[in-house]
Amino acid sequence: MKILEDNLNRKFEFCTYVTLGSFDGFHLGHLELINRTNELSNKLGCKSMIFTFKNHPLSIINKSKTPKIILNDEEKIEIVNNTGIDILNLANFNEDFMKMYPIEFICKLVYHYNVKGLVVGLNYKFGYKNEGDIELLNILSKKLNFKLTVIPPIKLGDDIISSSRIRRLISYGNIKEANLLLGRYFMLSGNVIEGKKIGRTIGFPTINLDYDDKYIIPANGVYYTFTEINNNFYKSITNIGFNPTVNGKNLSIETNVLDFNEYIYGEKVKIYFIERIRNEKKFDSIKQLSLQLRIDKELVKQKPFDFQQKIFYN
């Protein structure tokens, strides 16, 4: 897969079939767009391509309304690399893009990338003030001689799969349903930082994850997780919260990794969230906390360990 950061400046000699969208989270709805793009590009002998933005458009249009991020660029690349797409273009949304009229955007896209077909969702909007829509794309497809494929909304149950729905589920701690919509386990990554080291005094050492609050964080509570360390996977228990039993004041993401006891401060880890076990609770003593942690650990030991099937799209 080729990775670009091109703002409609390159000129391709080969033809492309392009899917357009924000692709925030790369959920099952996005996967449908990608699969159709791969299918149609193969029929025409073109390169399949995702055109999206490295930064969320609202970060330029109205920063205060920018949603929490589900995936960083590195994670997006890793996931898309497993979809069979040929080119991932992460354009930089800036003021020039913000002011670009819909017709200008599509004309430039078709010209620069030799576009033979576009694949979009039914509610796709584009161009200045989101004035471009499917009706305009239909007109332009005839004038500019490209195929247009519109994918209807993908549903799970009665509701449409969307990034906003996934963010809401994660923020409420409903990880199992969020994972169903994503088609893989929700994941947080970051470097291991030093904590208060209280856990190791009661036999439950934890790794503390450095995190950025621009990313969506699951609701406070205790979660069954998998932790990836140096390409190895381990069962784990992750607590998100303020450690009320020891009067914690700052939000922390602490993970007790089963069958692991190595020094990894400063190293990058990935934590995959499988399901929420219980709420965060303030115990009357460290001893009661220790007893609850033993119960949590025994529960997790009995859980299935099928990380290979849900880390990326299959």
Strand order of the largest sheet: 1-4-3-2-5-6
> What class, by secondary structure content?
alpha/beta
Distance between the termini: 17 Å
Tell me the number of strands: 14
Tell me what the CATH architecture of the largest domain is.
3-Layer(aba) Sandwich
Helix content: 25-40%
CATH class of the largest domain: Alpha Beta
Overall form: elongated
Largest sheet: 6 strands, parallel
Q: Over the alpha carbons, how many angstroms does the gyration radius reach?
A: 22 Å
SS field, number of helical segments: 9
Low-confidence stretches: none
Description:
With 314 residues, the chain is an alpha/beta fold. The chain folds into two domains: 2-159, HUPs (Rossmann fold); 175-309, Riboflavin kinase-like (Elongation Factor Tu (Ef-tu), domain 3). The chain has nine helices and 14 strands. Strands 1-4-3-2-5-6 form a six-stranded parallel β-sheet, sandwiched between helices. Strands 9-10-13-12-11-14 form a six-stranded antiparallel β-barrel. A two-stranded antiparallel ribbon has the order 7-8. The chain is elongated, with a radius of gyration of 22 Å. The mean pLDDT is 90.
